[in-house]
Amino acid sequence: MRVWRQGLVIVALAGAAPAGAAPHDAPFAVTIDVDVGHDEGPVAQEWRFFGADEPNYATMKDGRTTLATLGALAPDRVYFRAHNLLTSGDGTPALKWGSTGVYREDAQGRPVYDWTIVDRIFDTYRARGVKPYVELGFMPEAMSTKPRPYQHDWRPGSGELRTGWAYPPRDYARWEELIHQWVRHCVERYGRSEVASWYFETWNEANLPQYYWGGTREEFFRLHDAAVRGVRRALPEARVGGPDSAGAGDDFLAAFMAHARAAGTPTDFLSFHAKGQPKVIEGAGGSHVRMGLNTHLKAADDEFAAIAADPVFRTKPIVIGESDPEGCAACQGPANAYRNGTMYSSYTAASFPRLRALAQRRGLTLEGVLTWAFEFEDQAPFAGFRQLTSGGIDLPVINTFKLFAKMGGRYVSARSDHQVPLDSALNDGVRGGADVGTVATRDGTRVAVMVWHYHDDDVAGPAAAVRLRLRDLPRAYAGGATLTQYRIDEGHANSFAAWQKMGSPLAPSDAQRSALKRAAALDPIAPAERLAVRRGAGEIAFTLPRQGVSLLVLTPARASDDAR
Fold first, then answer.
1. 3-state DSSP call for residue 230?
2. Model-level pTM greater than 0.85?
3. Separation between Cα atoms, residue 327 and residue 421, nearest integer Å
4. Domains of the chain (ranges, CATH numbers)
């Protein structure tokens, strides 16, 4: 439907009703204003970073498929971080475990290097347009100060995680030489300029001694310094940083910066982790998951504050090396029930712009936000892990990244009268009214507007009746516009909902898998619409269900017609 009014065109776009919403839950009105002429800076595409505990999944069938999907989002600009790249073993993966067997010692105690497995992992990345974000860890068995037991027996809910792989080296010179030899080998295999485009950091969350580090803080700093020396000896221009510490409200990051400054350790970027904390809420009507967006944002902002307070390091680029709704991708359970469906996709859409806004408010450069989610090979369908795909089938959350990938160029002004203010989200999350937020970009004459409808509580609620007003569109729109809308919700780009409608089969047939892949696809929700534009302005009306994420893409009609 089109309605002419004061030179604007209103286009009503259909939207699915929110899952579980009662007929009397009438949509609430939302107004969004986008000023395409108001430039708000370049789009850095911070979302281009991903990672996983289990490095060997990358070379397996569904791992290869998932990497190909990620690499296609932004070829040669997507990065992948993995634990266990230096861990001893034959490459057999398990939950929170992997190995490459790069280092052992012969009978005379001389180092023996074997790059076969780690080469296979990095080759798999590069063949699919993905670059390594190299985590220098963990400790090879022959080098560990406490090698027995070596492989952990952790499993969801039980087992010891910190075993021989987590301890300092018995010889820091051998550790440095291992790193040197590995980086030198990578330069020979992939080329100097290629390896110089990677990120190198040491270890993982060394400020959590109960999990990932069996030494002291000072021993970690020594480990890091030796690793950086090894990298830079092989490639002086390599990009090195760290410490990829957990955002735990401690002084670890500040101490790391002080140490690096005093020791003169090269530091090209800073990295830390930030996580949320969902929980199960019991009520008269049953239980539901409540997300912890505020916990996630506070963890990030605490670390931003530490960096901003440092006169030397405040200018360094920052990568949030793990940024997730909670802290254990391999754990299952009721509080993690958000993962398969649209709660995860809408949370992702709502959190990324706020992380960027928190960094900007402190005058910092946020270069990357790394999602610690990948895939878990040969598990039951939709098993409840924090992952991007299940059995080679895209989950709703990965489609949010596909929407992000369609946004480039420059940010432009976008304001919603129902977007929860930054400080309210930081302090309290989204516990009252729903968060209907927006971000918009302009890339040449192409305009993209993302709108999300998020709430911390995973319960049904009314849809948003959105009135999107655009102004100062480029002159190329004088002949009109073509509008395409993409959507992630209960009925669009949602393999999990389709699987549930099938009866949740544990072994989907070929026909069912094909249907699930079709349901997962991020396709336009309707044919492209030809719009009239008057005096550089236009107006669009559409309904966005709770937990829905939409991307509206406008191009000049003449350009679209010429392309056809």
1. helix
2. yes
3. 25
4. 2-42+412-563 (2.60.40.1500), 49-374 (3.20.20.80)
